[in-house]
Design goal:
The chain is of the alpha/beta class. Helices cover 39% and strands 18% of the residues. The chain has one domain (48-259): 3-Layer(aba) Sandwich (Rossmann fold), CATH 3.40.50.450.
Length: 261
C-alpha cells in the first residue's frame, strides 16, 4: 500500500530556515496501516519516545513563564540529548505550539510528530470550514491525519503511534494542564501501559489528578471528578507527579531516569 506524503511550509516564509524540510503530512484511516505509514515517513527506527498532552489555558503570567522554561530547558533539551521521538497533537496551540517553538529555539533535530483529526486540520491547499479547525504547528517534522470529527478522536492514535515508535524502548507521557480531551489522552496512555508524569502546578486536569492522587495517599476515596477517580482506579501505579517549580536540571534528570527505566 502506498502512503502519499505532502510537505507543507506552514509559515509565511516560503523558505523557512527554522524548519527547512517543512512538515511532512500523511493520512491513514486504519490502525493496521500505521507501520507502513511510519516506514514511508522515514520513521522506521525504534527509540525512546515522549508523548506530550494537555493544554496551556487559564495560566497566570508566572505559570506561563515556568511552562516555557519547562519546554525550552527540560523537554526539548532532553529530547535532543536522547534523540527521542516526541509525539503530540500537532496543531498550532497550547503545548504543541510550545513544543515546536522550543525545538526551534534550541536548534533541535529530534523528530516531532503530530497526530490530529483530518476533518479539523486546515491545510494551506485544503482549508477546513469548521469553527474548531486549526492549522498545523509549523515546526513539527511530521503530522499524521486520522479519522475523526472532534478533538479527542486522535487520543488513541497518539497512544498507538507512540507504542509503535518506541516498540521495546521505554516511552513516557507528559501531562500538562488540559481539559476533557486531556483526560481521554490519559486513559489512552494508561491503556497502552505508558507511565504518565503529571506536571503539578499547571492547573486544570493536571492539578485535578494530582489532588486525586493526594486523596488516595491519605486514604480518602472521595474524588470530585468521576473520570479522574476512574483513572486512578484503573492504574494509579502509572501516575507520577512532578512539580512545575522543580529546578530544570533536576527535572530533566528525573525524566531521563524514568525513560532509561
Amino acid at each position: 500500500m502506498t502512503f502519499p506524503i505532502q510537505v507543507y511550509q506552514i509559515t509565511e516564509s516560503a523558505n523557512d530556515s527554522q524548519n527547512p524540510g517543512g512538515v511532512k503530512v500523511g493520512q491513514v484511516t486504519n490502525p493496521t496501516h500505521l507501520p507502513g505509514w511510519l516506514e514511508a515517513m522515514g520513521l522506521s527506527d525504534r527509540r525512546h519516545t515522549l508523548v506530550v498532552v494537555g493544554g496551556a489555558s487559564g495560566m497566570d503570567a508566572d505559570q506561563q513563564m515556568q511552562l516555557e522554561t519547562l519546554f525550552r530547558q527540560v523537554l526539548a533539551p532532553l529530547a535532543e540529548e536522547m534523540q527521542l521521538y516526541v509525539v503530540d497533537g500537532g496543531t498550532d496551540a497550547g503545548v504543541m505550539r510550545l513544543m515546536g517553538q522550543a525545538r526551534t529555539a534550541i536548534g533541535g533535530t529530534f523528530p516531532l510528530v503530530g497526530v490530529a483529526p483530518r476533518s479539523l486540520v486546515s491545510l494551506p491547499d485544503q482549508p477546513i470550514d469548521h469553527p474548531e479547525a486549526s492549522i498545523l504547528e509549523p515546526h513539527h517534522t511530521h503530522c499524521l491525519l486520522v479519522p475523526g470529527d472532534k478533538w479527542g478522536d486522535e487520543s488513541v492514535w497518539i497512544a498507538e503511534v507512540a507504542t509503535l515508535l518506541s516498540d521495546s524502548h521505554q516511552s513516557l507521557t507528559i501531562l500538562i494542564n488540559g481539559g476533557s480531551v486531556t483526560v481521554q489522552d490519559a486513559y489512552a496512555s494508561i491503556d497502552a501501559g505508558r507511565e504518565i508524569v503529571i506536571i503539578a502546578g499547571t492547573g486544570r486536569t493536571a492539578d485535578d489528578i494530582v489532588e486525586a492522587l493526594t486523596y488516595q495517599v491519605c486514604g480518602n476515596k472521595v474524588v470530585a471528578h468521576p473520570r479522574i477517580a476512574g483513572l486512578l482506579d484503573v492504574s494509579e501505579e502509572l501516575l507520577t507527579a512532578i512539580d512545575l517549580d522543580n529546578h530544570p536540571d533536576l527535572f530533566r534528570q528525573d525524566l531521563k531516569q524514568l525513560l532509561l527505566g
